[in-house]
Amino acid sequence: MINHWRFGTCSLVAVILLLPRIPCAGSLTLGLISSSPIEASRRFSPLASYLAAQMQSEGIGAGTVVAANSIEAMSSLLRQSKADIYIGGFFPTMAVSRLSGSKLLLRRWKDGSSDYKSVIFTRKDSRIAILEHLGGKVIAFDEPFSSSGYFVPKVELLRIAFLVLPDQSVVGPVKSDEVRYVFSRGETNTIYMVANGEVAAGAVDDQKYHALAKNLNGLKILHETQSFPRQIVSHRADFPVKLLTKIKNVLLNMPRTEEGRKVLREFDNTTKFDEIPAPVHDLMMGLKKYVEAEIKPPSL
């Protein structure tokens, strides 16, 4: 079922998957942001179903997955209590929290790791050797809600004092103090745009780069960022404390049972959930001003 909401001047689309329901019971809704909402929702459905089953004693009879296509859309869903839990990347979690008041809960591990890095890369035959050489050039980013493929590498360029601007919004040649960007709408697309010379450089996460670029000998890494969390679990601000405590305990203890481990594997090869360490909170505080510059205030 597809529901449409309005947020400001943007049309927001959410895809909802309803899982087995117990009559007269409440539901628990997991939220995500994706440009492929149906596919992404299906990946989340095993976890939603598992959590609902574990929460039956608390009156939860169904697991629901709602997929939004933007940070603003996810924020709207949380504010309206149409999503209870949001699981997303490092940057969109910070932005959604700023717009909706959502609170951080846990960190999600995927493929055996809690963190990863972003790499900015170019062709080996390029004269670009350091980030400063990107002045006057165009770079490919992934999507506007990507941590590794947009926000983190953009911050690295901003810290050099470049103006980092969308290429479509500026008329005329790129100035030497500018770096313009286009969205590739996919990490594979980013890599091939660089390899084919369509853009001067690109940015993806380090694991994806090494997996996809291993057969492309014509690329080189210009810069590797510091590590940051792959994904964060957060919740709407007014979510009941009793239910939240139960959900947190269920997530933390999933690796201890065979059923829990099976659901973790089905949930996009999740390894586990754990507490968010203090250095992650410190990192978020250091990036706060960059997040503020990215987001739009919610409509009243």
Brief rundown of the structure:
The protein is α/β, with parallel strands linked by helices and 300 residues long. The protein contains 10 helices and 16 strands. Helix 1 (37-54) runs antiparallel to helix 8 (258-266), helix 2 (71-79) crosses helix 3 and helix 3 (90-100) packs across helix 10.
Structure description:
It is a single chain. With 300 residues, the protein is of the alpha/beta class. It folds into two domains: 176 residues, Periplasmic binding protein-like II (D-Maltodextrin-Binding Protein, domain 2, 3-Layer(aba) Sandwich), CATH 3.40.190.10; 108 residues, Periplasmic binding protein-like II (D-Maltodextrin-Binding Protein, domain 2, 3-Layer(aba) Sandwich). Helix content is 35%, strand content 30%. The protein contains ten helices and 16 strands. α1 links the parallel β3 and β4. α1 packs antiparallel against α8 and α3 crosses α10.
- The CATH class assignment of the largest domain is Alpha Beta
Find the CATH superfamily of the largest domain.
Answer: Periplasmic binding protein-like II
Rounded to an integer, what's the Rg over CA atoms? 20 Å
Overall geometry comes to elongated
Give me the side-by-side strand order of the main sheet. 1-2-4-3-5-15-6-16
Question: Helicity range of the residues?
Answer: 25-40%
What's the rounded overall pLDDT mean?
Answer: 90
Counting structural domains, the number is: 2
Separation of the first and last Cα atoms: 27 Å
Strands, count? 16
How many H/I helices?
Answer: 10
| Biggest beta-sheet profile | 8 strands, mixed
Strand content: 25-35%
- Which CATH architecture of the largest domain would you pick? 3-Layer(aba) Sandwich
Task: Give, in order, the helices and strands.
Answer: EEEHEHEHEEEEHEEHEHEEEHHEHH
Question: CATH topology of the largest domain, which one?
Answer: D-Maltodextrin-Binding Protein, domain 2
List low-confidence stretches. 1-14, 18-24
